[in-house]
Design a protein that fits this description.
By secondary structure, this protein is mainly alpha-helical. It has one domain. The protein contains 14 helices and no strands. It starts with 8 loop residues before the first helix and ends with a helix.
């Protein structure tokens, strides 16, 4: 889609830098935060606050509030996208390095492709696509396997399972996204989903007993700064840049964040998070990223597939 006026080159480059670097860096920020704040509670604080800001911003600009039907759709999606996807991601990062978590989450297009092939029939299984799917599965297997022949650094299996479930959950949400009645405004739609997701995550935190072990006075400045970064940089600034880019660049080009973010996350985790960069991590990451690049650049049988990229960064 093209905007009404052509943006300056520096604006485009800045927007791409934001979605590449900021979204890639959120995995390390999550890792820092969950060391001191229970995971579902931390995720709830992030998305409730971001949702309030985006909803309020949209209303201030004159965007109508979602209808009851649209609120219901947003709430339904928020369970998959925020409770199961982000909730499990935050939980898993207590056990799994942030860079590897980003790589595992990058398998989302693999599960989307499988769903399109097996259930939606909007994608045809070609030899190229089959190889890409096998590479992605092999990359995950290498990261998870405890075989001594692959060296040290296998990730925690429960953490890996949580991340796989999270990726599948996001894939299911992306498919439902095209079927449910959501607000026309992407900002309002995302604000409503984040707000509902924040409420559900906070409820999940209460059910899991996270409030009982949470001590505000015990949380360090670094953890609070990580939360602030996740709210404003990760959920508001980066999302705004993403929406702006979608209106000025092709969805395919904007969608390249899906395979840049894991590289950023792995490097930041290594240089700033004291996370090991083993041969296992490098090989698994390369296989997953090659798989994602091939899958996301494959031609779809229907224009509906375009919406998966446009909505994936909610």
């Amino acid at each position: 889609m093209q905007g009404t006026s052509r943006p300056r080159r520096w604006q485009t480059l800045l927007a791409f830098a934001i979605i590449y670097l900021v979204w890639g860096s959120t995995f390390l920020a999550i890792r820092i935060g969950v060391r001191e704040v229970p995971p579902f509670l931390l995720a709830g604080m992030r998305f409730f606050t971001a949702g309030i800001v985006l909803y309020g911003w949209s209303r201030a600009k004159g965007t109508p509030s979602p209808s009851r039907r649209e609120w219901g759709a947003a709430a339904s999606l928020s369970v998959l996208m925020f409770v199961f996807d982000y909730g499990l991601l935050f939980w898993a990062e207590q056990r799994v390095p942030s860079g590897v978590a980003a790589v595992m989450m990058a398998t989302t297009p693999v599960f989307m492709a499988l769903a399109e092939i097996l259930f939606l029939q909007t994608q045809r299984l070609t030899s190229r696509l089959a190889i890409a799917l096998l590479l992605g599965i092999a990359g995950v297997a290498i990261l998870v396997s405890h075989s001594s022949g692959l060296g040290q650094g296998a990730i925690d299996r429960w953490g890996a399972i949580a991340l796989i479930v999270a990726a599948i959950s996001w894939s299911a949400a992306a498919i439902l996204l095209r079927k449910l009645p959501l607000p026309e405004s992407k900002v309002m739609s995302s604000g409503a989903q984040m707000l509902a997701g924040g409420i559900f995550l906070t409820f999940a935190a209460a059910v899991l007993g996270e409030f009982k072990v949470f001590r505000v006075q015990a949380v360090s400045l670094n953890a609070w700064l990580a939360l602030i970064y996740l709210i404003f940089a990760g959920s508001i600034v980066a999302f705004t840049a993403y929406v702006w880019l979608i209106h000025h660049e092709s969805p395919t080009k904007v969608g390249t964040y899906a395979y840049v973010n894991p590289i950023v996350a792995v490097l930041l985790g290594y240089f700033f998070g004291a996370e090991a960069l083993t041969e296992r991590t490098v090989l698994g990451t390369l296989l997953v990223l090659v798989s994602v690049v091939v899958i996301t650049t494959a031609k779809k049988n229907t224009s509906e597939a375009k919406e998966l990229i446009e909505e994936e960064a909610t």
